[in-house]
Each structure stands twice: as structure tokens, then as C-alpha cells.
Amino acid sequence: MVASASRGRAVVTLSGYGEPPGDRVRQLWVMRPGAEPRSLGLFDGDTPLVAAGLSRSATSLAVTVEPGGGSDLPTTEPVVQLALESVGFGE
After folding, report:
1. Where do the domains of the chain lie?
2. Most buried of 10, 26, 46, 86 (most Cβ within 10 A)?
């Protein structure tokens, strides 16, 4: 992951996870204190996902495995969660 708090963006790459089972997809979420997770998009294999519109209150990015087409809210526990405080978020 490469993130910029001043630009409110992050580029996230997943590798080593293989393809999700069946018609499932990997979905990226932004996590903020006191707020529901917000979807930042679906991964297409190992293609990096550019996440825009991140607020400084974001504390982490999480990846879940969801039904095909994605979900409005996460339906599974994250397979990975990336802290953002070290790159200027979480204020």
C-alpha cells in the first residue's frame, strides 16, 4: 500500500492470496471511528486498486471476501487490515 493523507488517496495491491473461491470477490473498505465501513471498490485479481476520497479520520483499510458484485457492508471478517496512522491518517 502507498497512501497520501494530503491527497486523500491510497494505492493498494494484493498479492499471494490467489483468486477468491467461486463467484466471490475481494472488496476494499475504509474504516473510521464511529462510522460504518465504506466500500472503496472491488479488486480485479492482482491489479492495484486506487482508493480516492479518504478522509483524515480514516484509521485503516480492510479487505473482505464478498459475494460476486460486492456488498453494501462487509459480510465477513477482514482477510487483511492495513493501519493508516503511520502515513498521516487517523486524526
Report:
1. 2-87
2. 10
Band (pLDDT 50/70/90 cuts) for residue 19 is confident
User: Which whole-number Å values give the CA distances from 18 to 10, 15, 24, 59, 67, in the listed order?
Assistant: 22, 7, 12, 26, 16
pLDDT at 16 over 90: no
Residue that the C-alpha cell 479520520 belongs to: 57
- E strands present in the chain: 2-4, 9-12, 25-31, 38-42, 49-52, 60-66, 80-83
- Judged against a pLDDT cut of 70, whether residue 49 lies above it is answered with yes
User: What would the mean pLDDT of 42-56 be, rounded to a whole number?
Assistant: 89
How long is the chain? 91
